[in-house]
Amino acid sequence: MSERRAYPSDLSDARWALVEARLTAWRQARTDAGVGGRVAAHDLREILNAILYVNRTGIAWRYLPHDLPPHQTVYAYFAAWTKEGIFTELNYH
After folding, report:
1. How many helices, marked H, and strands, marked E, lie in the chain?
2. Which InterPro entries does the protein's record reference (predicted)?
3. Residue 77: which of 50, 37, 55, 56 has the closest Cα?
4. Nearest CA to 49 among 22, 1, 12?
């Protein structure tokens, strides 16, 4: 993936360090269980950055900038993390 300019809503390295292990473990557990049926193609930090961008700007999912992961992918992670209480665990509610 090419480097992109940061958005004001992007996670700092320090904040990413606080949540990286939990999100990586979540994705690995789903992969091990065979959920989704695909190999992960997008960086978890970029997915979370995209969710935070939507939250901060109030835009519709479809209007995510093209340098972030596809809106369908971002929304699928958002929906799964919301349903499974990940945001509550991470204090992103």
Report:
1. 4, 0
2. IS402-like_dom
3. 50
4. 12
Q: How far is CA 80 from the centre of its chain?
A: 10
Tokens at residue 47, please?
Answer: 């997915």
Residue with tokens 């901060």, as numbered in its chain = 56
Name the residue ranges covered by the structural domains of the chain: 13-90
Alpha carbon distance 55, 23 (integer Å): 18
Q: Which amino acid is at 39?
A: V
Q: What is the pLDDT of residues 45-91, one digit of tens each?
A: 999 999 999 999 999 999 999 999 999 999 999 999 999 999 887 77
Over the stretch 20-58, which tens digit does the pLDDT of each residue have? 999 999 999 988 877 766 677 899 999 999 999 999 999
pLDDT value at position 92?
A: 63
Residue with token string 């961008």: 53
CA angle 70–6–61, rounded 5-degree value: 30
